[in-house]
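Annex B. Sample input.
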Amino acid sequence: MAKQVKEPLKEEEKRKLNKANLKNLLRVFTFMMPYKGIFIFGLVALAFSTVTLLAFPRLCGMLLDIADGKPSYFDTIDQAALALILILLVQAIFSFIRVYTFAIVTERSMGSIRKTIYEKIIWLPLTFFDNRRVGEIMSRLTSDIATLQDTFSTTLAELLRQLLTLILGTAILFYMTPDLAVFMLLTFPVLVISALIFGKFIRKLSSKTQDRLAAANVIVEESLQSIPIVKAFTNEAFETKRYANAIEESMRVAIYSARYRGLFISFVIFVIFSGIVAVGWHGASLVQAKTTTTGELFSFVLYTTFIGASIAGLGDIYTQIQRSIGASERVLNILHETEEITSRTFAPPIKLHGGIRFNNVSFAYPTRPDNTVLNELNFEIRPGEKVALIGRSGSGKSTIINLLLRFYPLSNGTITIDGQDIDGLNLSAYRHNLGIVPQEVILFGGTIRENIAYGKPGATEAEVQEAARKANALEFIERFDDKFETLVGERGVKLSGGQRQRIAIARAILKDPAILILDEATSSLDAHTEVLVQEALEKLMEGRTTIIIAHRLSTIKKTDRIFVIQDGALAETGSHAELTQHENGIYSTLLKLQLQ
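Annex B, continued. Sample output.
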């Protein structure tokens, strides 16, 4: 059977097979414990499958001995052939049992790992996601677990099979033809060691070739993703030359690698077949001297082939185990991450009224501990009050919202709602009282109904439709052929900005939060759509504490109070009319700049 060509092991995938690393890999086996009975049954089937297959070379040798008239366990060739067929049938049955049982254990174990990892990730705090790319996290759920899946389903079985074949096959050779076995052991290690040393050098060259080609592919990816910039700066020729240079370098390394790969292949063919000739010559000498029969020599050759294939296979298995150790480390690292406090603990629902108070709140993001974003911030918002947060970019407006949502722990100070410290409230129950309509609306790739109902899983059809009506979304939903079953596409790409915004408002209406956060909810809309969205927002804000982040000051004139944030502190506060009276104030200055 042709072997699958495996990619060279990347530097970051290399792991030593020491006690600590193997212990990490074995910890992943805890996910297999619920299926240990099936797994043990599969191991027994694997052992029987290997043992019965090892009887095949001996019976083949007996077949030849019977043809030569030598005494054997069987009287006729027909009996020996029938025994061979029975051996193969038994081996096939045990192989099927092994493959099927290992598949059951592997699929269920990997399913448990996937569910556990995803459940862990989804409950982790935002600080975890701040330090990692989404692609990296996806890799844990896909490639790393796929690596472990290959290990459990294939590599583990192959490792056990090859070790059994190697040990039992060698023992049979020493029992059956000790002279030939000793001769083989004198020549075989030299061949294997030579091939391993040369092979390691070739793998390094192959890895270097792949690195050069990957660098060329990066140029393609970057240039095509930024094609408007390339064309705007008329850099087509520059990018073409850059890619051509990268390809020339990859070709140079590939040709250099091919030279040594050709030498390696020639060396392997010459050395291995020379070894076979040497063993064959010695075996023929023994047959000629009548110390060994033709059947025994044939059996010896088959056993040697089995053993050689096992030794060759152990190299690939070693590489796969190294990959598996690295994958298990990365998976276990996620499982050891600290979750958001009290997120998963059950707690009765909390009904808040929305009285918010920031008491000497200071904060710096964990990724930038030396950069203080909020500095002893103090303010109070009464239940049902509509407050706008304004200020220059980087003043701390979004950070206030992030802390209110408890995305990050406070550095200093406290935040209370209705007089209760929010850190003492169950996190999930607390967040049920907050709703947000962001500037960049993120929709899931399902239907309009599913996206609205995300605000209240299990909502009735009537509740979803009423939320859409209040959000002024019915007027465009009803125009679609599929109505509420219309697919919105990935991240809502099939809807316009105003339509996505109204879906987000309907989602917030359905959630019915005590505290509403509007983050630049109308900043990117045309005048007509803005009117529709603004009407929906006014319906949504009725009877709720509302915090509005806005850069367009014309949208916040009707708020009860405006908080001007500067350098992480409250610089000014008051209504629109009150703040405009201060001609040199920050708010008045910002307003004049926008009017200009």
